[in-house]
Amino acid sequence: MKILVLNRGSSTIKCSLYDNFTGTFTLPSWEDNKLVKREIEGVQAIGHRIVHGGNHFKKSALIDSTVKDKIASLAKLAPLHNLTELEDIKKMEKLFPNTPQIAVFDTAFHHTLSEAAFTYPGPYKWAEEGIRRYGFHGISFQYCTKRASKLLNQDQKGLKMVICHLGAGASLCAVKDGKSIDTTMGFTPLEGLMMDTRSGSIDPGILLHLLDNKSPKELSFELYHASGLLGISGIPGGMQAIIDNPSSRTKLALDIYIHRLTSLIGSMVASLNGIDALIFTAGIGENAPVVRERVTNALSFLGIKLETNENSPEDQILSSPTSKVKVLLIHTQESFEIANDCFTSVSK
Question: Are residues 33 and 78 in the same domain?
Fold first, then answer.
């Protein structure tokens, strides 16, 4: 089966073509309609990463008008993602009107969270209105869970893993027996870790204070686009720019990032009541040795020992044989995971 996958993140879009799962390549800009049509003639399914599925979707869905309406209704909760992903769907409909399209949701992997883990401690009517922790990056976590099990040659059942998806957007997931039991992102992709331009978790009282002089629209822009590494350092370019441009502010940005990341890993370990494997993935996790080194040093009390910390094009175990916790570098393959879901959906 030939499957086209569109994986749009907050800062990138990746287009991949899978032909009988024998390989993948990145396509030229799919906005050039004639070029794309020639390259992917005969495609039998199109898969889309959709960030927010809310309470509507606990698994992938064949896209129809109802599914599109539900994706649109959740756009306010994922303003950097859902609307642009919906635009991709509509463009593909025009190019390939008879080809089934499948929505694969980042929130679906987290439907196994317990009520205690997903309920916010506000008025109970919040929960009745659907205000709860949904979690994101689920497609990446699902892939990394399977891949880690193979690398460690251990069944998912019994494995306690903390997966660190560290990209422009970033979150952690506590995985036990192959299922998500805790995660750092919540109702929206704004909660949790400090990110490239997003603040992550902050005292909500700060927002109440700032509302005296700022509009909700201004606050939304600051929280999503002018905070995080950019907000503290004052320079764009994410983690690599922080590392390449040493100054008092970039040092502070990195220190805050490591502090908050390490603290939240600790909370994931507590949720798991232990840890067997710590996994680094996505742009920063795969390519920033200084982050991996500082985090594992801070967590050395858990018995973590690194054998190597070099970047590698291959997935690998970074920890030494005597380490009590295995440390893995995994190159996340969200597009491959989406293709798998497409294959399952279309083959039914």
Answer: yes
From the list 247, 278, 252, the residue with the least C-alpha distance to 265 is: 278
Q: Is residue 346 part of a domain?
A: no
| pLDDT given for residue 213 in this prediction | 95
Q: Catalytic annotation on 106?
A: yes
pTM: 0.90
d(CA 92, CA 280): 33
Residue 254: phi and psi, rounded to 5, are: -65, -40
- Tell me whether residue 195 is exposed, middle or buried, using C-beta atoms within 10 angstroms of its C-beta: 0 to 12, 13 to 18, 19 or more: buried
Residue 144 included in any domain: no
- For the segment 324-345, what is each residue's pLDDT rounded down to a tens digit? 999 999 999 988 899 888 888 8
Rounded to the nearest 5°, which phi and psi values hold at 280? -110, 130
Centroid of chain to Cα 220: 20
Task: Answer yes or no: do 158 and 241 share one domain.
Answer: yes
Instruction: Please tell me whether residues 234 and 88 are part of one structural domain.
Output: no
With contact defined as beta carbons under 8 Å apart, do 132 and 119 qualify?
A: yes
Low-confidence ranges of the chain (pLDDT < 70): 9-12, 20-34, 36-40, 79-80, 348
Token digits of residue 192: 């949790």
The whole domain housing 6 covers: 2-130
The domain spanning residue 52 has which CATH number? 3.30.420.40
Question: What pLDDT was estimated at residue 10?
Answer: 61
Taking the C-alpha atoms of residue 276 and residue 197, their distance in angstroms, rounded to an integer, is: 31
- The answer to whether 25 and 16 are in contact (CB under 8 A) is yes
Q: Does residue 139 belong to any structural domain of this protein?
A: no
Q: Are residues 44 and 97 in the same domain?
A: yes
Among residues 88, 106, 182, 196, which one is catalytic?
A: 106
